[in-house]
Each structure stands twice: as C-alpha cells, then as structure tokens.
Queue: 4 jobs
Job 1
Amino acid sequence: MKRRLLLAATLALAALSQAPAIAQPAATEIVEKKVFETTGYVTRGGATIPTIRIGYQTAGTLNAAGDNAVIVTHFFSGNSHAFGRYAEGQPAGYWDAIIGPGRAIDTNRYFVISSDTLVNLNVRDGRTVTTGPVSMNPATGRPWALDFPVIAMRDFIEVQKRLLDSLGVRRLALVTGASMGALQAIEWAAAYPQMIDRVMPVIGSSEFDPWAIAWLDIWESPIRLDPNFNNGDYYAQGREPPTRGLAEALKIVTVQAQDRPALARFGRRAAEGQDPLRRIGDRFEVERFLDEAALARARVSDANHFLYLVRANQLFLHEYASSEAALSRSQARWFVVASPTDRVFMLDYNTEMVALLRRLGRPVDFAEVTGPLGHLNGVVGMAPLADRIRAFLQN
Amino acid sequence: MKRRLLLAATLALAALSQAPAIAQPAATEIVEKKVFETTGYVTRGGATIPTIRIGYQTAGTLNAAGDNAVIVTHFFSGNSHAFGRYAEGQPAGYWDAIIGPGRAIDTNRYFVISSDTLVNLNVRDGRTVTTGPVSMNPATGRPWALDFPVIAMRDFIEVQKRLLDSLGVRRLALVTGASMGALQAIEWAAAYPQMIDRVMPVIGSSEFDPWAIAWLDIWESPIRLDPNFNNGDYYAQGREPPTRGLAEALKIVTVQAQDRPALARFGRRAAEGQDPLRRIGDRFEVERFLDEAALARARVSDANHFLYLVRANQLFLHEYASSEAALSRSQARWFVVASPTDRVFMLDYNTEMVALLRRLGRPVDFAEVTGPLGHLNGVVGMAPLADRIRAFLQN
C-alpha cells in the first residue's frame, strides 16, 4: 500500500503521460488534447512573444450564457491532464476522482477546462504543448534558451484568459488548482474578480514570502551548478543538457512535496551491493531510488523551463502591494484546502489565507486533506472531499 | 529585532569564531581552547586512523569521584564553543545563556566539556581543531581527501570517550546537545548507559529515517555537482575548491534550520539594481543575502568534511536494530526539548521520541522552545528554559 502510494506520488509529480493509475469508476471520459495558439503576446514584463502555443483539454459543454465554466490550473510539475483519459487503458488525470460525469466537479453540469502553462516543465513527455526556452525564437531560428522573456504567474493567467475567450467562456463558476495551481487560482481571482464565482486553492498560499522565494532558489541551484548548464545554452547538437543538475532539482521537489511515511518502506538499508559505513561514495537504498526516479523525470523535462517556472512562482501576485491588496479585489466564495503535513506550503500558509479572507469579509470554507504524502495529499488524496466540494459548488 | 535574530541565527550556524554576541551577565568565563590527541583509532567501519586531534574546552572542576561531568555535543555546523569566551570582548559560546557560573548548567557545580567532532565543518575558521579529509594522510604525505575512512556518529562518541578518559571523567551527570548534538547525546546514552545519569536532546530525533537520509543527500548534492569538486581531490596547489557547491549546500542548511519569520524582513524586494521580472538571471534581495552569507561560510568550511558529516548523521545509531533497541539500553532520566516550527527535525520526531521513552518506562520531561527561528530556536533561544533545566539536573 505504501509502495503504491509512493509510486503514485512520484508519478503524479512526473509528466502526466505517466500519471497515477488511480482506480476509477468506468465512466471516466475520454478527453482529447488540443492546442491553442495566440500571437503577439506582450508579457507583464513588457517583452513580446510572437507566437504562443499551449495544450489544453475540456470536458462537458459550455451553456449558451457561457457561465458554467470551470478552469483547473496545474501544479509545478503538472500539465493539463487533470481529468479523463486520452484513450481506453491509459491513465486517468490526477484529479479524475473529483472531476467527471456525476463527480464533485460534474462534467454533466460544468464545462471544465485545463491547460498546460507557459514554460511547462514536461516538454519532452510527448503530451505537453508549451512555449518557453526550448521553443524556436523566430528572430534567430534557434531555441530561445535564456533569451526567452521572463514569465510571471500573471502571464499564465493572461494566456489562459485568451484561451477561455476563444472558447466563448464569460464566467467561471470555479477556478481551482493544487499547489502552483492554487497560486494560479488566486492570481485569477485578483486579475478577473468580476468573472469568478468561486475559488478553491488546494495546498497553496496567498503569499509567496521570502522563505518561499528562498526555497525555490534552492530548488533551482543544482541546475546552475551543473557544468552542462552553460548559462542555458545547451540545445545545440552535440551538447549534453544539464540532466544531473535537473535531476537533483527534481529530487528536492519530490522529497519536499511528500512526507516521512512516503519513504518509510526503504528503512535505513544500503542500496544493493553498497556499503555506506565503509565507502563514502556508496548509497542508501532510499537515495538510489530517489536518484533513479529523479533521473527518469529529468529526461522528459527541461532545465531552463525549470528556472522559468521557479521565477513565475517567485513573481506570484507581483503586481499587488500585498496579498491583502490582491485578495481584497475578489468577490468570490472561497474554499481553502490544506494538508497538515505539507512541507512546501505549510499549514500556516493556508490558515493565514483563511484568516485574511475572513478579515476581508469573504465567505470561506476550510478543509484538510490527509494521508501519508504531505503536500501531495492535495493531488492524489482529494476523493474524500468530494461532498464538501459538491456542497461548495451548490452555494 | 528581526534583523538581529536573523544575524544571530546565521552566525550561530557559521564558524563559532563568528558566533552570536548574545547579551550576557558579566560573569561569562574565559575558556581556553585545548587540543586532545589520540593514536591508533579504529573506526566502527574497521579502518585505522593513525593520529586524531580534536579541539575541546572545559569549565568548572572535576570532583574527586569524577562524577560531576557534563558533556555538550555540537550541532552540524558548530564546534566546541558552547560556552565562555576565548578572551574579553570576544563572542560568547552558543549556549552561554544556560552554561556558566550560577547558570542552569552551573560550572560552579559541574565540570563541563565540549569538543570539536571529527570531520568538523569549520576547518578554516582558525578556532576548530579536527581530523578528517583535509588532514595529512601519513601514508601519502598529502590530505586524505576521500580516502579518509567513513566516520559514523558512534565514532564521534568513541573519540569523546577517549577524551573523557584522559580527563578522569567516570560518570556524566548530563549529556546534552542541539540538533546533531542531540543525536550525539542519544548515541552516548545507547553506547555507555552505565555512566550516564541524564540526557537532554534538544531539537533532535531518536530516529534518522529515510526522509532524513534523503534530506541530507539533498544537502550535499550541490557539492557533488560543482565541477571543482573533482571527486574530493581539490587540495593540490593551483586547484580551486568547490566553493560554489559548498555555499549552495550551506544555504540549504541555513534556510531549513530557520523559519518564515527569520527571512520576513527582506520582503519581496529585488536586489539592488536587479529586475527579476525582466531578467532571468537577476535576483531577489533575500536570495542575494543568502548567497553572500553562504559564500562567507563556505570560505571557512570544507566540502569533503560536509560530505563526511552528512554520512555520520545518516549512520546515527547504525549499530542497533532500531531506535527502540538503542534507547532501551539507557537507564538515564531524559529531558526532550523541541521547537514546534522546526523544519529539520519536525515536532513529530521529538514527540515520537518522548512516546518511545515513555513506552520504555524511562522518566522523561518535555518542553518546547519557541521563537522566530524554527530549528535554531534550540541553539539561540534556550534561556527561557533555564529553570526547567535546573530542575531536571536536581532530580
């Protein structure tokens, strides 16, 4: 059981083409991955990206008023695959337990959209469509690399807004997401308060404080140390990408996004054939497992995209004087979901958000999601909250 | 105030020659740094180290029975400077608030010893005396580098035992330390139960579980990525040590050993002249501060010693089948002190230790140490527990 949960957690963090095979009712919908293209996008920092392409998927039907839409925003290492399957026998999306026909977020009632962000991490997984440093810079005919403009989290929202406009969406019954998806939901609520009825940030924070900024700097530091990084210029033929550095970066994310019980099964055993008591280079079994899992993920990811994702998070709500200034713009109902054993956005971040919303007079529900996976309980353990979510949507 | 606490915390983690200048009564003792040498030491892994030298300091007087001794074991980035000053006007030791004449650990009553561990981190601070990879390997006439034998935490205790024997100590009224010092105190309690009356592990754990093993692997990974690391062979003239990797490693320790309030004063400001919204290489002020603090620490530390310290921690209680098997050997009274906002040894580690000791029928007190510094509250915030410690010592 613990092994299955750990596997699920590792996979949930990986490219979603390898997402957790959560047991589902037979009704899981087949969804299609589509591509949205938009041109002449000017970033919040003032740079122009001539062409942007991002992947997305939908379920359900938009009503004539265009007001039964739900957008699901993804976590740091996720993509659009929040619900449904791309084909029979393929894995279901990470929140499929709460999104689908008859489920908490009922696709018989709501038109549900989820898209890949800009600078998405999973650029080599064969499913993710994104624009970022790996994309062709039309001015040079080569990948942008670090010439790609800095992307703020608000840019994620602006591109999603163009996608929603193209689909005819006028109102959002709900904006929701886990972790970085929660940050996006909050950024949405501040950016477009007049079009949003409800916000459900899961395992998130309304404040990206210096502590969080520092941690994300720690996450990316192995990439900058890898001699193959070469200041982001590693796409040319014959060059090796900074896979080791990226793997170490992903390892930090993997461990911090879980909790003690998720690794307990490894005990304190040495890796096979290794002797940590006698050889300084030898490894424990848990280290070997994490090395291999991180390397597998690094092979479908891109190091520059990791740096840009970090920066987008560090620039969360960067256009507002404070979290209070941002949240005070929202007129929505809120449902904050936190994991008490979260080591990324600790419980305090969430309870502070609830207290702030209450101080601002906003209606706010609060629930805890539990399990052995720490932060990731909010990705793989949401099923027990289905009734709470359903009730929230009926208010 | 916050600035002072942050500074204190950063310095507490740094070489203790730069330790926090905590306001003290005038009575702080002048202590002398001495050197203990022992030969022909066989590690628990079976390798021989021909000569070991470690620094130590004492205060108070050993009684005729040799049973009024206290040993204070240091944290990961600490050294013997737990109490006293090396000269008037110099900074006091990190626990000087609770160790000294008339203080909780009263040097008028107890003979207090604290020593530098093997493979101590602060090899270039001018105060620390240790033996490890930087030391001369008599077989080659060059530094051992990664040929130095692996050191287990039990080896720390064995060398300290030789030191205590040389001083005539027969019983320990108390073994205590913070963080890695708590682990050493527990290792002492398991190794020499018949000579220990009391154990006070502060911000520690009785279990170094796979989660902790994984985190320490994360701590050291920047060193292994630094191209200057060269598999530990960087002592030759003309070679640069892996200072960047070591600085990034120390940065992780610094951040994880504190808590959100300790960094709050930086806000979300860009570093001077930097623009994180427009240039991907630009930094936030908190990042710049942490970069500089980490680099300053790296310059007085050694990367190979960092790796060996990590391994010593990962090998905590490695000779016992379980924490329960180790702790069941102890006949001592226990006083467990935890910081509720600890991000290294979270509160759970400490409450589990208390529960285990109670299950084993051992007398155990428990107290929390609070403040804005997370884990480091147990290093710089112990003064309010003085009466509890005094009471513990009188039982």
Job 2
Amino acid sequence: MTDPLRLGIAGLGTVGIGTVKIVQRHAEMLARRGGRPVVISAVSARSRSKNRDADISGYGWEDDPVALAKRDDVDVFVELMGGSDGPAKAATEAAIAAGKPVVTANKALLALHGQELAEAAEAAGVSIRFEAAVAGGIPVIKALTEGLAGNAIRRVMGVMNGTCNYILTRMEDAGLPYETVFEEARALGYLEADPTLDVGGIDAGHKLALLAAIAFGTRVAFDKVELEGIERISIDDIRHAADMGYRIKLLGVAQMTGRGLEQRMSPCLVPADSPLGQLQGGTNMVVLEGDSVGQIVLRGAGAGEGPTASAVMGDVIDIARGCDLPIFGQLAASLAEAVPALVTAPAPYYLRMTLVDKPGALAKVATALGDAGISIDRMRQYGHSDTSAPVLIVTHRTTGADIAHAIRRFEETGVVLGAPVAIRIEEV
Amino acid sequence: MTDPLRLGIAGLGTVGIGTVKIVQRHAEMLARRGGRPVVISAVSARSRSKNRDADISGYGWEDDPVALAKRDDVDVFVELMGGSDGPAKAATEAAIAAGKPVVTANKALLALHGQELAEAAEAAGVSIRFEAAVAGGIPVIKALTEGLAGNAIRRVMGVMNGTCNYILTRMEDAGLPYETVFEEARALGYLEADPTLDVGGIDAGHKLALLAAIAFGTRVAFDKVELEGIERISIDDIRHAADMGYRIKLLGVAQMTGRGLEQRMSPCLVPADSPLGQLQGGTNMVVLEGDSVGQIVLRGAGAGEGPTASAVMGDVIDIARGCDLPIFGQLAASLAEAVPALVTAPAPYYLRMTLVDKPGALAKVATALGDAGISIDRMRQYGHSDTSAPVLIVTHRTTGADIAHAIRRFEETGVVLGAPVAIRIEEV
C-alpha cells in the first residue's frame, strides 16, 4: 500500500480548490493517516486560465471531465462540479465504467440518480462516497452509515441549508422582513444562482432524501419529499413563535411509520431551548435517532471551502485505507422501494389568525377546532388595532389533514380575516 | 463474504447484554448492512447461572475469557469486561496472538496499554476498535479518526463523564451541596464501585488520552493528563459562575501547542449559552476542532446499555464490511512520543475569595493581581455578612502559573480569608 493514491479532481470552484489546498498543505499527514501518499494527477474545470487561490500548474489538465475520469494516472475521480446531469453525471459514469471509485459533493446528482449510479458502481466493484454532499463538514453520512449501523433508525432530522437558517435567524435578530433579509443574503453571495434551490428547500430536500435512503434502507426518493420553502415565513410568525417558546427552522424530517416513509422538508417550530432551536446563523445540525443509541446530535459548518473539502478528504482517506462499503449502507439492489406515507405523523400545530373584533369571534374559532377534532393546548390573544385581533393557538397533537379541515371551517365562520397560518411543531 | 462473522463476547454486564440483544433483535438488518450474517458463537462471564436480561443458552460458554478468545469458532473477540489489567488484558492479547480483531469498550485498558496492544495488533495484522470506550453512543472515534482525517486537529474538548455532569447540573438545579448530590448519585447507582474513577476525573481522563493520541499522532499518554476532579466544586462557585454567565463542567481539553501537548481534565467555566454550557444531566458532548472543518460538536448518551452496545456494533459492522485501519489512525510505530506542555495555554480565570471587611481590602487584592501581571476583566463584590465580603473576579487571559503567583500574593495581604478559589475559563 505504498503506491500513491492518485486523484483526478473535476471542478475547481470553492470546494475543488479547498481540496487541492489540503492535499498540498498536509501531504505528510495524509500519507501517515492514509497509509500511502495522496497526490493529484490531473484536474479539470471550465477555464484553465482563471486566477485561482492555489497553484495547479503541476497537475495534468483536461478540458473534459470525462477524459479526466478515464486517465490512466487517476485512481479516484473527485467530482466537485455540481449539477444533477450533464458533465457531472457523464464523468461519474465514465469513472465507474473505468472501475474507479468516485468521491463527490453532488447532492443533486445522487438525489436524482443515486439508485442507478449505485447499482452501476456496485456492479463495477467500486464505491461512490458523498460525505461532502450532506451537511458540509459534519461527518453525518459516516455516523449514520457506519457508526450507527447497529441501530434501527427511528427518525432523522436536520437543519441542512445554512442560507435558510441564516435568513431565519437574521429576521429574528434584526426584526427584518423576509424580503429584506433575502436581498441581504443575495448581496452577500449566500444564495445559489437559482435561489429556489435554497429558500425553496430543494437543496436541503436532496440531502434529506440521501439520509433517508441510508437510514431506512429504501431507494433514494427525492420526488417523494414533501417540500415547502421559507418564502412565506413572516416576521410576525417568527416573533409570535418566540413568544410561545419556539423558533422556526427549515427542518428536514424523515421517519418510517406504520403508514410508510415520511420525508418532509418544511418550516417547523422547534422548542427554543432545544439544540435545533438554539442553532444560529449558517451552522448545520443533524439529529439521528436510533433504537439503541437514542438521540445523537451533530453540529458544524454546513458549507464553505474548508468544511466541505474536509468531508471530501475524509472520503479520500477511507479509500486510501481500503475501506469500502455499499453506497447507501447496503447493496443497492437490496434497497426497498420507498412507500410514502400518505398521512404524516400527528404533531402539535401553531396557528395564527386575525379575528374581527366582534363578540363571540373567538368562540366560533374554538368551536371550529373542536368540530375538526382538534384540542387546544395554549392560546394567546394579543392587544389589537381598532377592528381586528391577532390570535395564536398551539394545538395538541393532530394531523395536517385535520388542520386543513379546521382552516376550511374557519372560513365558514366569517370571523377570520385573511388566511390563517398553520405551522407544524416538530417534537424534538 | 457470505460466511457469518462469529463473535465471542467476554463480559455480560450492561454492555455485553446490550450487544447480545442487538444481535438477536436485528439479525436480518445486520446481515444486510454488514454484507454477511453476524452471529454469536460463545460468551464468557463471571457467573454462568446469573439471571440475565437476554437468553444466552444458545451460545457456547467459557469460564475463561482467554479460552474464548482462542476458540476456533470466534472471528472477532468482543471485550466488555473492563479493567486495565487482569483477564481483559490477557484475553485481548490472546485474541491478537490468534490473529483476531478485537472490539472493546475498555478505556482503562487502552489508556494504560494502548501503545503495546496496538503494536502487537498491527504486527499480527488485526485491528482493535474501541468506539464504545469513549463517549458511549457518540461515534466520536470514527468522526475523529476517519471523518476528520484531512484535518490538522487544533483542539479536542469533551464532557465525557455523565455522572460528573449529572452531579454538577443537579447541584445547580436543586441548589444542593456536592456531598448531598454525590450521595444521591451513589444511591441511584450512577457511581463506579470506586467513585474516584468518576468524580476524580480518571475515567474521563482515560477517554481524553485516547482522543489526544488520534488527534495529534502521539502515543497514548494518560500519565501526562493533568487530572483534577469535581470534589472541590462548591454550590457557591456554581451559583457565582452562573451569575457571571458561565457554567462549571468537568471538561477535558487536549491541544497541541508550540510548548507541547496539553491534556487537561479539570473543572472549567464555559459560557452558559455555548453548546458545552447548555449540556444538562448525563449527556456527553465532544467538540473537535480542525484546521479545515472548523468546529464540530457531537452530542449524545455517554453511557448505558443501548448507546454503548450501539458503539460496539458499529465497530463489528465495520469489521464485517472489511474496513480496517490503524488503531490510532496511523501505524502505532509512527506515533510520536507525547511531549507534555509544561505551561498551559493562557486563558481567563474565575477567582472567588472572601475579604475582610476593612477599608482598602479590595485595593490590596487588585494590587496583588497587578503585581502578578494579571488584568481584571470583570469584578463583583457581593453584599456580605458582618465581617467579610465575597468578591468575584474574571481576569483577562493569563497563565495558571501567574494565577498561582497572585494567590500567594493574596495571602501576604492579610485581607483574604481562607483559600481563594481559581477556576480556568475555557474559551469555547
């Protein structure tokens, strides 16, 4: 095992350059830990001449990542281009066909084509490793697939899009509306070119789908993730939730229930004093719950050059050490079809609505809830402007269907102004 | 790889029985994840006839764990007896000599004999895995050795003795003195037979020494860990620390400095709103800091049947999958001798003392601090009984040596009653 492990790195953006820097800075340490030197044979990116934060002149160059994947002097193909299709997919397939393991940070690629790629890789006897695809520097894929392998997993939860968490905590701290903070985040370069990937929950949904596949032994089913972004979260709800002891997070939840697999990526209330509630700014957190281990909480930087490159290198060192395992923790062919739960598990809900200031208005709302079979845990009515009064309700456990039913009944009462807001309270 | 992986489990206490239960409950899942069935061939414990919470009648029995380790039908020796010497060591050595990998929860064994055992295991071409030895169910050995393998580690910190954290948080919550809560913990069965292992910091010190070896590529050096227990922590200090925005934790800190390796297991103040400060009860937390990844925080149950057995099974599944790596993340022969730092890194300190109620007393203390080169960040003087006044001081960064110097100067002033208390504030 003293032959060097030779990397071909496709994509020299933030993560690619971060990876190059680690290889250059820590050659001796990596050789000691990996049991063999780790070197870069060649790289590929859109522009060869671009000014970069690392010297790549000593490496071979390929304009085409597919050619890079096929090079004889590349043992491991490191795919850091991104994009669910196109060159990233073609080059990953080429590497697998050439019998080479792949290390990737590409959550979209695996969320959409994970099953097909895993089957191809396992047929070729190589692995695809993707620690960097989920929650940046947090070694959560490893913790779930390996560390907790002795557990039947009960639930996986996570705040896995730092930009959304930044927006939500900044709204609360500065008392600013969503639109203002969204523009701030854009100006700071925190948003993807297509911001829907972030604020629409798609990026985080990709990550959740990968975690769910490992946790429950099911085929990746991103198309079965219930997706709701943070665009409709108002500063009012953030403030009122805080008054009731909660924070709003874009929370991913995956759990296997008697009704099937639940995968949700949506704004949820969590207790302000829970680890998830205390998470500020761009930091990520993943919570893993197993039948033996109980609850494990992992927290760290979810993006950025250093953290994501750290995850890439963890995978590279595993390959250097000869550690290999099925891509989703068991053979891809043995993964079960994910049967989505049509009804989500019951939970308490937060409701906010504005009532006309008329005698009996609150009674009508309470009656509508009762008719929908929903009982009230706590209620607050706030001081109000001349003709309307905001009301907050925390319900006991109920279902999303019953909440939707109650909201239709509210409309029939004629005392509710505008559309009521309902947000699930995740019990953490 | 369809031959079953056959375990021999020595020690059927809480962790041993927990491990048996997982193998029995999850046979199909373990086979799917490990790529081969995981079975138990034989077990060993002090008493064969003891009533146990799992049916072991289907397994072979050995009175002698050494004989168990040597059995032809045992592929992996699972050592869950405990004890740094005696049968645990003899049986581990026998397993290694027979060319069998060892999975152990035994922190004392590895803290005291890790180098010798690792060298023997590597010479025999087998691994020793010990996830269960540190922080129970938290996969921290894996996170540090594998997930963060691309990082130069800067610092490792941890609250890794649940009993101590239970005692400290219970003192604060209930306002009870140490002695009372200590007796409570004993009655609840939370304490080791020799409670010094817990409250003296020895158990947590063993764990810190193992983490430090992996983090810094140094030979395990438990004898170089500065140990201080929680016996001297008073309810007064817990309350005063809380007033100043801190909590007191038995905190392990290992860091490599220009002066050498620092390993401390001692009561420290940490900010009350930090993840470490918020840790309540018996839960454990480990903080890993790497040059690329930044800060990773891992939290979970640090002890108990399920969590510790989960860690054991994670190691077993790694072996079933054929993942092997050097015991401390690099070959034992390449580990450097740990050169202990003779001077600890500077930090702010918390000082509490009682002054005689005489004009100029505070000035004398302030002068003594200034003479020792220590500047004051914050100071509080409390309302007092007739003749004495408690004073709290938070210093700017200084060294333990300067603090000791200042305390000697305090004694010369004649205005300080009793022994001043000084506790390091760890900057987290």
Job 3
Amino acid sequence: MMSVDLAFGENELLPAIAQDAETGEVLMLAYVTEEAIERSRETGEAHYYSRSGEELWHKGGSSGHVQRIEEIRVDCDGDAILYLVDQEGGACHTGYESCFYRTIGGETVGEKVFDPDAVYE
Amino acid sequence: MMSVDLAFGENELLPAIAQDAETGEVLMLAYVTEEAIERSRETGEAHYYSRSGEELWHKGGSSGHVQRIEEIRVDCDGDAILYLVDQEGGACHTGYESCFYRTIGGETVGEKVFDPDAVYE
C-alpha cells in the first residue's frame, strides 16, 4: 500500500508527529510500526505503537479523543512520519490540547481543553 | 539551566521537532542530546546531535540555513522536544522548505525554496 520507502530501524519503529491540520499546532510525538501506519490509512484514524504496552494503539480508542487522518507525510530520509489530523477533544492525557504545553523553562503555554478525571477512570 | 525534567533514553537522545514559529509548518525531525539543547539555548540557534556523524550538529553551520530559536517546548512525558524557529533558507538538504515534502503515497506537496547544488558543494 505504501509508495515511499520507509527506513524502519532495528526496533521496527519510526517517530510520528501528529499535527492539527487546521491550526498547525503540533499535538504529540509517538511511535509507529508499519502495521500502525497501515491501520491509520485503512481506518482513517491515527494508530501508533505503544512502547509501554507493547501493542498497537488506536489513539482515542478508549477516551474518544481520536485523530481523524487528513494526510500522512514522510520525511526526506523516510525515517519520520507526520500525521495531519483533525483532533477530537485534546491530544494529551493531561487534558491539554497538545502534549507540548510547557516551555523548557517550565512555563505553561498550552490550552487545557478537557478534564482528564472526567475522561480517564 | 533546565527547569523541566527530561527523560533521556539509554542512548541519551531525544527526538526534536523543528516547527516554523510563524507559519506553523513542521520542518524536520532530528535528535538532541542535553548538550545540543544547552547550545541551542545559549546561542539562540538550533543544535542537534548527528547520529551519522556522531557529533554535535549546528544546523545551518555550513549551509547558512540556520534556525533561530524562538521557543523550546517539552512534551508531557519529557521525552520529546519542540523547537519553534525562524528558518533561514530551507530546512531540508533536498532544497525543500520542510523535510516532510511528500505524502506517504509519493505525491510532492512541499515547496522547493533553494537549489541544493548551489548550497552544498
């Protein structure tokens, strides 16, 4: 199904950036397997590989905060993926729209869009 | 100098996304060490770690296509970095503004902004 050669590393993972297709906000960085990319293309919703759970991860499968895929891009070396998505709710488990809600100096700059206690039991 | 704890892995690297601070375009994904982040903060220009060259990499140091740092963000788990930058020239060695200039289906969607033969000898 893929047309661009992907350079999966020894661990068969590639980093994948999710970006809000409309606002341009970078939402999160996670990892994908070839299977995760194929499932994203087939279902139209972002899939990743959970390194902690060691399994295919359908983002938002339990929280409802799915990411509808608008386009998938590949970088020049084929070793990174960019998901352009329409994010339902927020991307971050903390309730922020983006996982990148802090500066490196510790200042909160992101927007909180949901109450994690109400979403995750 | 850092305020947010970073979760460097066994290889002491973290993935770092560079995003154009003005247009929101995701420019590239590379890797950083703690030293690379510190040099970025000290100099105001993006530094990475070159995995192929196994050395600190001042992006644009030879091509002139530097990335002026406007802000550095950290994700929720402290295991990914976002550089918000003002990109001189283009980010990609192929001459495209962004390394993510192709869809996974192989369609070119990015904009070419310089001639790599004129920049890299």
Job 4
Amino acid sequence: MFNAILKTIVEGTGGGIGAVLMGYDGIAIEQHFEPCEGIDLHLVAVEYANILKEIKKAAVVLNIGFMEEVSIRTERFLVVIRALSDEYFVALTLKRDGNFGKARYLLMKEAGSLREALA
Amino acid sequence: MFNAILKTIVEGTGGGIGAVLMGYDGIAIEQHFEPCEGIDLHLVAVEYANILKEIKKAAVVLNIGFMEEVSIRTERFLVVIRALSDEYFVALTLKRDGNFGKARYLLMKEAGSLREALA
C-alpha cells in the first residue's frame, strides 16, 4: 500500500522521478523510482536523512516549532521532503523544471494516508 | 548597500520578518530584522549555516549539482535560503502564512545585486 501512494505522488507530479518513505535512521520502508540516469536516488534520500535530523534538532533548540517541510533545489534536481512523524519522512525528487507546487500539494495531501498506513 | 537590498526583500515579501547575508562560517555580513517576539533570528541563521554546509557537501558528493535554494517550513516560520557563492548565502525568515512564492522570487531577483555588492 505504501508503494501505491508513492507511485501516485511521483506520477501525479509533473517531472517526478522518485519518492521514498524513510526513517530518520536512513532506512527506507518503501520507494518508487522512475528510471533516471547518473544518480542513485536512494543514496540521495539516505544522505538527506542525516541532514533532516540536524534540521529537526535545530528547530527544537531554536524554538521555531517542529519541522514540517524542507525543499532543496540544486543545479539538477529538486527534492521536497515532508515530515510524517517523529520517526518517518517522505522525500520526493523531481527534475529541476518539475512542478514544485504540485509536488508540495501532493505530499501534503498524501501525508495523511501515509501516516495511517504507518500506524 | 547590503542593508538596503535586505530591507527591500523583507518589506517586499508579505509576512517577511528578517533577512541576513551570511557566510557559511556563520558570520553575518549584514542583517535587517523587523521586531519579532520570542525568537533570535540571528541565531536561527547561524544554526542554519551549519546545516547548509552539510547540504552543500552532500549535493557535491551525490553529483546532483550545486545547491541553489533551500526552504524550511516549521510550525511557526518559513525560512528561504539562497546560495550566492561558495562562501555566502542570504536567508529570509517569514511568518508561516507569509508569501512563499514572493519570497523565492525576490531572493532570486536580488541575488544578482547582492553578488555584485559582495564582489
């Protein structure tokens, strides 16, 4: 069921390449990737899990409230990450010219289903 | 001149609270903050400088291209960060319900002037 939700997110977002449901420990529960040359999207998610952990910690220390969403735009890709719980997040990678607004919308919309499926 | 540009960005963004021009070493060159209770925005930027350094490193290692923009949404705030060079970035903090699109647009638009002023 995780896979169906991730597939919905990737295919519904213009320019979507892959989505992964992952723990902050860097261990993926499920992933759905379109073929994409020259990049290991799983590795990208693992690397970002570490960074998210830091952001999460910083947000609490700084008293700016819980981290909900992080997006990172590089020369080649756009990664949008949504926190689901204290333990899990979902990360969507899209092409640089992908539909950022739709990505954020779908992640927000499907966060509930993912949380339910995790419970 | 830095201050005038930062002021333009903060005041032009609906819900803008503060902007800081900072090195990845956490040392601010200039900042412009509207009064905001219960938060030290300078500290927020310092904390994020560390995280950005990690993201920058990760982007290179992962071969996903240089980091250009990072945004972080928490329960209380929205922080939009734009890389200016290998050494400097500009971070804009806005209220959670602030105008995210306008924030990204103004940071992109003013990045050139900031880079020129830094040169």
